[in-house]
Design a protein that fits this description.
disordered C terminus, globular, Nucleotidyltransferase, domain 5, alpha/beta, single chain, SPAC4G8.04 protein, ATPase_NBD, 13 strands
């Protein structure tokens, strides 16, 4: 679906720190900034910004003029929480009202993938609410979210509902923090299921005694293949322990409160009916097969990164963990070092408003500019040819091989990128690739800061390794210092090789 002219006018902003290999990169965080100034000017706000209502985040009140702003409000209820947001919008009949509708859809999508949602409640101008109701329906712009959320929430037989309500009917915002990762005593097994490999770890009294990566094919449609692959890998780790007191795990995608694989994209080709029968309970069955009736805790892979960061930082909170591997894995621990009960599937969040930005295979081309294609290895591999790296034809984006859910070609392409960084004749040009990814990261962090209080960010994953990773991080810091000085104090952390190898270790299994 095409981007409306008014949205293109207000929401396409080039960054002050340019991405050398992606000159049309248009960060969402800058689009919001320009949009809010335009709405404020239309309503008469004297300082160019609208007075903030609850949910406005970084856009604080700077005073109003004589005009009265119009707000669109929404709520995203889920089983253990509810998200709220208020967005100032152009009034009905204004020539730029389509920009309000477009941006509201992007922000609702962002919050859905931060926290999950069983429904969407809208309150505000009737024309905007009706347009968004159509967008968040089957056949609409956000059909992918509408059809995914029932599975994400562990209620596949329900329908994602969109209702237009009075402001008084919007539920209040609340979260249910989760305490996890406080103790690593005893003998424990852990697994981390990524899109390229299975990481297994054996831990005895807080010491890693075994760690191994085993390749697997996530595209296999047979759940028994996955059950056996993970079980066999864990049984090898079990041999290094005298007993097993508990088991922990992590996986890309969403995991239910009872360790259900509610919507894990590491099983993309398992048919929906088979998924419901043989994948939803796969983690419980693996645990029983390997270790019997021991306590089990499985969480999202990004949350593991956040908890590991809290441990490495000796209990400091307000930590964002970002794993830049096959895709972007993200997690967050609050000021108390606890999880928020959010799904943090930020790989499905839009970073780039450029309407010509790449699509991704998971949403089947329905969206452009999602983080999948910016903050994981695909963010690097899509730029490899532009960086002058000599590649086989099938590694040159957008070759068909580079546009599927398979990760093997991207992993091999990333190795060529890292090898090119070691070649003096190619290094200067390849450095531009890492600067570009660093620009992506810097603007993404500024975007996240509206919803997360971030004092520390832990960066992991193969894209962050080596000299290229150092360039990427220094560029991200420069973005914050240049455009977002209020966030320039965020402290960046990386992990040593031992920590990277064991980053899937889960501690408190209860």
């Amino acid at each position: 679906m095409a981007m409306p002219d008014s949205a293109m006018k207000l929401l396409l902003v080039r960054p002050a720190v340019p991405a050398p290999l992606d000159p049309n990169f248009s960060p969402l965080v800058l689009a919001k900034r320009k949009y809010l100034k335009a709405v404020a000017a239309a309503s008469g706000a004297k300082d160019g910004l609208i007075a903030g209502k609850k949910g406005m985040g970084i856009f604080k009140a700077l005073g109003l003029g004589k005009g009265k702003p119009v707000f669109l409000e929404w709520a995203l209820p889920r089983a253990d929480g509810c998200a709220r947001y208020s967005l100032p919008v152009f009034p009905e009949g204004h020539p730029d009202v389509e920009a309000s509708i477009y941006l509201a859809g992007v922000l609702i999508q962002e919050m859905i993938w931060q926290r999950s949602a069983k429904s969407l409640l809208l309150s505000g101008p009737a024309n905007i609410c009706e347009a968004l109701k159509q967008d968040f329906s089957k056949g609409g712009r956000y059909e992918f979210e509408v059809t995914s959320m029932p599975n994400v929430c562990g209620t596949p037989d329900t329908v994602f509902e969109v209702k237009i309500v009075n402001p008084s009917e919007l539920p209040e915002s609340f979260d249910t923090p989760q305490i996890c990762g406080k103790d690593a005593n005893g003998c424990r097994l852990a697994f981390d299921l990524g899109k390229s490999d299975i990481k297994t770890v054996a831990v005895k009294d807080n010491e890693v005694v075994y760690s191994k990566e085993t390749e697997w094919d996530v595209t296999n449609a047979d759940p028994e293949y996955h059950f056996k692959a993970v079980s066999d890998a864990l049984k090898l780790a079990k041999e290094k322990l005298p007993k097993v007191d508990a088991m922990g795990g992590s996986a890309t995608g969403t995991v239910g409160a009872q360790n259900e694989a509610t919507w894990c994209d590491i099983f993309p080709n398992v048919p929906p009916d088979v998924y419901k029968q043989k994948v939803v309970d796969i983690f419980q069955r693996i645990c029983k097969e390997v270790a019997g009736d021991v306590p089990l805790k499985v969480i999202n892979d990004g949350e593991v990164t956040a908890l590991a960061a809290v441990q490495k930082l000796e209990g400091k909170g307000s930590v964002m963990g970002i794993s830049m591997g096959s895709s972007e894995g993200a997690g967050y621990a609050n000021a108390d070092g606890n999880l928020m009960g959010w799904i943090n599937e930020l790989c499905y969040v839009r970073l780039d408003m450029n309407p010509e930005a790449p699509t991704d295979p998971w949403s089947k081309g329905s969206h452009t500019g999602l983080s999948h294609m910016y903050l994981g290895q695909r963010g690097a591999t899509k730029l490899a040819a532009k960086a002058g790296i000599k590649l086989p034809e099938n590694y040159v984006y957008p070759h068909a091989n580079m546009c599927t859910i398979k990760h093997e070609d991207h992993a091999q392409c990333l190795k060529l990128i890292q090898k090119a960084m070691e070649d003096p004749s190619q290094k200067v040009q390849v450095e531009k690739l890492y600067v570009t990814v660093g620009v992506y990261l810097g603007y993404a962090l500024a975007q996240y800061c509206e919803f997360y209080k971030i004092d520390h960010v832990m960066i992991l994953g193969r894209v962050s390794k080596g000299a290229g990773g150092d360039i990427m991080l220094s560029t991200a810091k420069r973005v914050l210092q240049t455009e977002f000085p209020e966030h320039a104090g965020i402290q960046f952390h990386t992990a040593d090789d031992h920590f990277k190898a064991a980053d899937s270790k889960l501690h408190d299994m209860r």
